[in-house]
Amino acid sequence: MWRDAALVAGRDLRVEARSRVTLHQVAPFALLVLVLFAFALDPARQVLERATPGLYWVTVLFSALLAVARSAALDESGGVRDALRLSALEPAGVFAGKALAVAAELLALEVLLGAGVIVLYGAEPAGVGLLLATCLAATVAVAATGTLYGALVSGLRVRETLLPLLLLPVLAPVLIGATRAFEAALAGVPADGWPWCGLLAVFAILYSVAGAAAYGTLLEGS
User: Rounded to two decimals, what is the model's pTM?
Assistant: First the structure.
C-alpha cells in the first residue's frame, strides 16, 4: 500500500510542480485573504492580534478547498480515474497518496501563511512544539477529509460548489481545535493546547482510516 501511495503522491506532486497552480493561484489567494483581514481589523489592532489564530486557520481551510478541488480534478481528465480503476494499485494506497500530496502542499502553504501573520499581524511565535504538532495533525485531518469528500463528489456536475458545502461543516471541529491550540501556544500556556491537539490527532486518524476503507468503493462508483 505504501509503495502505491508513494507512486500516487509523486505523480500528483510532479503534476503540481509543472503546472504551478499552488504557487501561482492558491498561495496568492491565501496571502490576499490575510491582507484583507488585516485591512478590515487593523484599526482595532488588539482585536487583530487576538483573532490571529482563527484568521490563520480560516485562511488555511479556504486555501485547502482549492487544493482539494485541484487534487480531485487531476483524476477527472484524460481517463485517469478509469486507469486507476483498472490498475493494480491498492485503493487505500491511492487514497493515502493523494492525501499525502495535498498535505505536503498545505504544509508549504502554512509556512508561508505563518510568515504572513508574523509580518501583517505582529504575531510572536511561542510554544513552537505545540504549533508544529497542531499544524501536522490539522493538516493530516484536512487532507484526509478533503480527499475522501473529493472522491465522493467526483463526476458530479456541481462538484465545484457541492464540495465546500459538504466539506466545511465537517472540518468545523478541525478549525475549532486548531484555533484553540494556537491560542494557547501564542498565549504562552501550551499545556492548555495539547488536549486540543490530541483531539485533532484523533480526528485525523478517524478520517484517514475511513478514507482508506471507503476510497475503493467511491472510486468504483464515480
Answer: 0.89
